[in-house]
Hints:
Largest sheet of chain A: 6 strands, mixed
Structural class of chain A: alpha+beta
Largest interface: A-B, 28 and 28 residues
CATH topology of the largest domain in chain A: Gyrase A, domain 2
Number of domains of chain A: 3
Order of helices and strands of chain A: HEHEEHEEHEEEHEEHEEEHEHHEEEEEE
Number of helices of chain A: 9
Oligomer: heterodimer
Largest sheet of chain B: 7 strands, mixed
Shape of chain B: globular
CATH class of the domain at 3-43 and 66-77 and 240-323 and 472-524 in chain B: Alpha Beta
CATH architecture of the largest domain in chain A: 2-Layer Sandwich
Helix content of chain B: 25-40%
CATH class of the largest domain in chain A: Alpha Beta
Strand order of the largest sheet of chain A: 11-12-13-10-4-14
Shape of chain A: globular
CATH superfamily of the domain at 3-43 and 66-77 and 240-323 and 472-524 in chain B: FAD/NAD(P)-binding domain
Strand content of chain B: 15-25%
CATH superfamily of the largest domain in chain A: Probable tRNA modification gtpase trme, domain 1
CATH architecture of the domain at 3-43 and 66-77 and 240-323 and 472-524 in chain B: 3-Layer(bba) Sandwich
Radius of gyration of chain A: 22 Å
Structural class of chain B: alpha/beta
Radius of gyration of chain B: 22 Å
CATH topology of the domain at 3-43 and 66-77 and 240-323 and 472-524 in chain B: FAD/NAD(P)-binding domain
Number of strands of chain B: 20
Amino acid sequence: xxxxxxxxxxxxxxxxxxxxxxxxxxxxxxxxxxxxxxxxxxxxxxxxxxxxxxxxxxxxxxxxxxxxxxxxxxxxxxxxxxxxxxxxxxxxxxxxxxxxxxxxxxxxxxxxxxxxxxxxxxxxxxxxxxxxxxxxxxxxxxxxxxxxxxxxxxxxxxxxxxxxxxxxxxxxxxxxxxxxxxxxxxxxxxxxxxxxxxxxxxxxxxxxxxxxxxxxxxxxxxxxxxxxxxxxxxxxxxxxxxxxxxxxxxxxxxxxxxxxxxxxxxxxxxxxxxxxxxxxxxxxxxxxxxxxxxxxxxxxxxxxxxxxxxxxxxxxxxxxxxxxxxxxxxxxxxxxxxxxxxxxxxxxxxxxxxxxxxxxxxxxxxxxxxxxxxxxxxxxxxxxxxxxxxxxxxxxxxxxxxx
Amino acid sequence: xxxxxxxxxxxxxxxxxxxxxxxxxxxxxxxxxxxxxxxxxxxxxxxxxxxxxxxxxxxxxxxxxxxxxxxxxxxxxxxxxxxxxxxxxxxxxxxxxxxxxxxxxxxxxxxxxxxxxxxxxxxxxxxxxxxxxxxxxxxxxxxxxxxxxxxxxxxxxxxxxxxxxxxxxxxxxxxxxxxxxxxxxxxxxxxxxxxxxxxxxxxxxxxxxxxxxxxxxxxxxxxxxxxxxxxxxxxxxxxxxxxxxxxxxxxxxxxxxxxxxxxxxxxxxxxxxxxxxxxxxxxxxxxxxxxxxxxxxxxxxxxxxxxxxxxxxxxxxxxxxxxxxxxxxxxxxxxxxxxxxxxxxxxxxxxxxxxxxxxxxxxxxxxxxxxxxxxxxxxxxxxxxxxxxxxxxxxxxxxxxxxxxxxxxxxxxxxxxxxxxxxxxxxxxxxxxxxxxxxxxxxxxxxxxxxxxxxxxxxxxxxxxxxxxxxxxxxxxxxxxxxxxxxxxxxxxxxxxxxxxxxxxxxxxxxxxxxxxxxxxxxxxxxxxxxxxxxxxx
Lengths: 403, 538
C-alpha cells in the first residue's frame, strides 16, 4: 500500500500546469489585468495594473515583486567557503557572515552557467540564489568538500521591496535599524514568531531590499508590508516593470544576455564572464576555480564578444536589432531594449563581435517599426555608455534619505 | 565690469532653456531674475512647513522630450511621472471617468452614451491627426509668409507640403480646427453633455474665451500635443513639483558655466546706436552684453523694460494691442489627509488624475459669462489634482497637497483692483464648490495659497496673470506670435531677442520658445546650431 501524498507533495506535483507562490492569493487579488507568466514552474504576475504605474513605483515610491520562483540552495558545512571559491570565478574570502556577494559561475569552457547572489547567513551556512536551477552542477562541484547542498527553493518565499521610499516603508514595518543596513548586507528581524531575513540587494539599481521568509508566514509579510507602505506609495510590480528597471540599471539576465551554458546545444554560443562585462568578477589569483584554465586562455588570446550598453538616437526601441559598423557590416545585435523613462534615453544592451564597441566606434542599430501597416526602417546612431543608464545616489546611501 | 556674450532676462523655464543652449554653445551667459528664486511659472515653493506647492504650473506634458534628453535633465534630477485619465463629478451624484485603457474607457463612455463610446474612436483619430501635424512644428522657427528669404520659402513649402500630403480635406479640417470653438467641435462627435463637458476643459484652460468662443478648439489641441515618454496627450507630475523642471534646467545651464543672479529685476534694456548693450537693474547695477534676450511677455518686454523711443512705432502699437488677458486663478492647499469624494471608493485610481466639477457645456459658458461681467465665476471650472498620492516628496506621509486651477478669474473685479478681502472671497468660492462633492474637504485644510491674476502678475511677472504669455488664438499663433514680422525671436533692435511663451509655439511648460530662440541667436552669430530638431514622430 502506498502512503497518501502529503500537502507539499501535492503542491509540487507535476500534474498541475503551474504552481502558485505563497503570495499567490495576495497577488491575484491585486492583479487587474490577468497577465501572468510562468517562471521556474510558478505562475507570477507579469502586469498588475499599468506598466507606467508599476515602473514608477520602483523609481518614485516603493514596489514589491514576488521573487519566490528564484532557485535557492542552502550550502552548509565547514568547507563552504572553500567550495564557493572553487565554484565561483570571484574570490569569496570577503564574504563574512551578514554579507551578500554577487558572483558568476562557469563550466570548464569558461562559459557562464549563471550569475547570482551568495548570502552568508550564519557560520557555516550560505545561500545561493539564482534565476536558473543548478543542483546537478552544484553537487558535481562539491566532490571532495565537506559541504551539504540542499535545494531550498520551495522553502523560502521572497519579496523584492525596491524604490526610494522602500527604507521608509520597512521602518514603518518596525524593522528596527533597517536604515543602517548597507548595500550587500543582510540582517534577521523577528517577525510573526519567526525570522525575517532582509538583504539590501535587488535587481533595479535603486535603493531596495529583498525579504526572505518561510512560506507559511508569506501572506502575513505581504499584509504588513502593504499596510506599512501605504503612506509611502507602495504598489506591487510585475515582471514587465522589473525588466525596464533592470535594463536601466544595465544588469544582464540569464536566458537573455546569455544562454546558461548547461542548456547549450551549440557549445560555442556560450558567453564568458569577460564577454558579459563581468571581467571584474574573475580572480585569477586564486589557484583553482571552475573554468579557470579556459578563462586564462581567453585572457591571453582575447575574447570573441563584447557586452555593451547603448544609448540609441531617437525614441524607437531597438529590440532584437542588428548592430552595424560604419562600413555597413553586421557586428552584433541587441539583447534587451527599452525606452528609459528615468534616463530619458532609448537604451539597449547588446553583444558585439570583437573588437567593436570601442570608444569612438561608429555603430548603428537597424530598427524596424510599423505605423498603420507601413513598415519603416531606421539606422539609428548608437553610443556606447560605460555605466548604468540610471544610477541614483540613494542606492548606496546609508542611511538612505527619506525619498 | 565683466562683459557677457549674452544676458537673459527672467529665469523661467524658457529663459533657462535658452541660456543653457547658449552656454552649451560656448557663450558666456548671465540670467537675471527679479525674484529671490528661479523658475518663473515652473516653480515649487514651501509656504507651509512640510509641504511643497507647485505654485503656478502644476502638471507636465508639453516640455519637449528632445530638450529633456539633450540637456540631460534626468541626470540633473528631473523625473516626470505620468498619470492616467481624469474624472468629472456630476451634480446628480454620478461621475464620468476617463481611463487610458481603451476598453475600459469605452465602457465608461458607454455608461453615459453608447453612441459616444463609438464616436470617441473617430474623435481620437481626428485629434491625433492634428497633433501629429503640429508636433513637428514646435521646434521649428515659423516661416515669415511675406519673406522671400530662401529659408522662409523652404519652411513655408515644408509647412504646406506637410498638410498637402494628407489630402485637401485635411487642410480644410485643420483650418476649421484652428478657428472653431471647442463646443462646436465636440458637438460634431458627441451627444452626451457630460462627455463633452469633460473633454471641453482643455479648450478653455488659461484662456479668456468660453467653450463656444471661436479659437478654443485649438486650445484643446495645445493641451493634447505633448507627451510623457512618447505617449502623446499624456500628462505627468514633475517629482518635487514643477520647480524641478527649472531646477534641472538651471543645473544644466550652470554645468556649462552659466551664471544666475536672483533678486536682479531689470529696469531697462540698454540700447545705444540702435543696438543693445546690456541691462540696467532696478538696484542700479548694470551688466553688459551684445545680446540681450527677454523671456518676459511682449507687453512687459516692449512697454516696461524698453524705451519706446528705441523702438519702431509699429512694435509699440502691436505690443499695446497684444491680447494677454487674465482669466485664471490658482489655489494650492495643504491637506491633513486625503479627502473623500461622494460616490468614489477610497483610493480609487481616478482620484490620482485631474478632477473637475462642471458637468455641462452650459455651466462652462455661464462661468465665462461671469468673467465677461467683470467678476470671478460663481460656479467655476476647476482643474484639480492631488499629486501627493503619487509624489512622496511634497507632503508628509499620509498628508496631501491639492492644486486647484480656476477658470475664470478676471484681472480686476468689476473694474476695480483686487483686494485681499476679494481674493479670500474668491478662494472661498472654490473651497465651497469642492465641498459640495467632498464631505470632509473643509476640515482637512491646513493652509491655502490663493492666487488671483494680481498675485500671478506681481510675483511671476505675467501681465494680467495670463499663463500663456498671451492668448493662443490664431491671430497670435505661428508667424503671428507675438506679432507679424517679429515671430522669429528677433526683436526690433539689433542684438535683442525674445524667448518667452509669448513667442512660437506659445505657452505651457514647453521649453520650445527658449530653444528655438537660441537656435536663431546661434545662426546670427555664425555659430554651429546645437539645438536638437524635433524627433521623427511617424
